[in-house]
């Protein structure tokens, strides 16, 4: 494989087809060099959750990159005989093109793609996309080179026709607190995800307070990610209809 030029067309996660460009994207590189190793504890938490129920499993991938987490969830759901309904949110032009290729390769019609950035209110935001050493670092930034449409998380979920969320993975490069604060204020509680896998390396901006107020309890955390479960008995956040 070392002598082959990009892209690499491979199967990962027990049969999910991907076209990968590992040279400029850590997410793609870590899968192509060892898909069984990345985020082991985080993925085990999600796998356990998927195995506990039946019927449709609803997954939201906020900051989907090229769709690898969603394809992994898809593979687990397939093995367990559960139907997947998924929403992937990815506004970066390069990543969303790769994401579209990966979804099409798997005929993953059960996955809906929102190509807007997430924010606390609708509008336009500046987005940093050009000249990145790692495409996973594409993000909302005042110094961005691209103007993109922005949408609240609740609107993205409703636009996808989802009425519940079993689990959500969120990695939106420092915008997590702003987006989740607005979501918990506006979304009816029945649509809040039961399990939340979130990047926490930006958590000094009030993320812990937002999650605690909403009633989420950490079941796992490392230096990068945390897995939280919704505990209804401790929730104190408000909702609106």
UniProtKB/TrEMBL annotation:
Gene3D superfamilies: Vaccinia Virus protein VP39 (3.40.50.150)
Superkingdom to which the source organism belongs: Bacteria
GO biological process: methylation
Keyword Hydrolase: no
Keywords: Methyltransferase, Transferase
A single MF term (Gene Ontology): methyltransferase activity
A Pfam entry, by short name: Methyltransf_21
Cited InterPro entries: FkbM_mtfrase, SAM-dependent_MTase, SAM-dependent_MTases_sf
Keyword Methyltransferase applies: yes
Domain Methyltransferase FkbM: 61-216
NCBIfam families: fkbM_fam
Protein name: FkbM family methyltransferase
Annotated organism of origin: Ruegeria atlantica
């Amino acid at each position: 494989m070392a002598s082959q030029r990009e892209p690499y067309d491979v199967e990962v996660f027990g049969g999910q087809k991907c076209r990968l460009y590992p040279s400029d994207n850590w997410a793609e590189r870590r899968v192509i060099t060892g898909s069984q190793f990345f985020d082991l504890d985080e993925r085990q938490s999600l796998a356990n959750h998927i195995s506990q129920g039946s019927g449709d499993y609803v997954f939201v991938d906020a900051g989907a990159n090229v769709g690898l987490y969603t394809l992994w969830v898809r593979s687990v759901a397939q093995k367990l005989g559960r139907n997947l309904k998924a929403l992937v949110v990815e506004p970066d032009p390069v990543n969303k093109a790769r994401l579209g290729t990966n979804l099409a390769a798997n005929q993953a019609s059960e996955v809906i793609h929102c190509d807007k950035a997430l924010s606390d209110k609708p509008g336009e935001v500046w987005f940093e996309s050009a000249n990145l050493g790692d495409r996973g670092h594409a993000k909302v930034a005042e110094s961005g080179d691209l103007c993109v449409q922005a949408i609240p998380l609740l609107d993205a979920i409703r636009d996808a026709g989802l009425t519940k969320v079993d689990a959500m993975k969120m990695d939106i490069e420092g915008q997590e607190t702003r987006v989740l604060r607005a979501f918990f204020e506006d979304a009816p509680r029945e649509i809040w995800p039961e399990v939340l896998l979130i990047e926490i390396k930006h958590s000094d901006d009030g993320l812990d307070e937002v999650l605690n107020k909403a009633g989420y309890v950490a079941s796992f955390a490392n230096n990068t990610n945390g897995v939280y479960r919704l505990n209804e008995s401790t929730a104190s956040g408000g909702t609106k209809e």
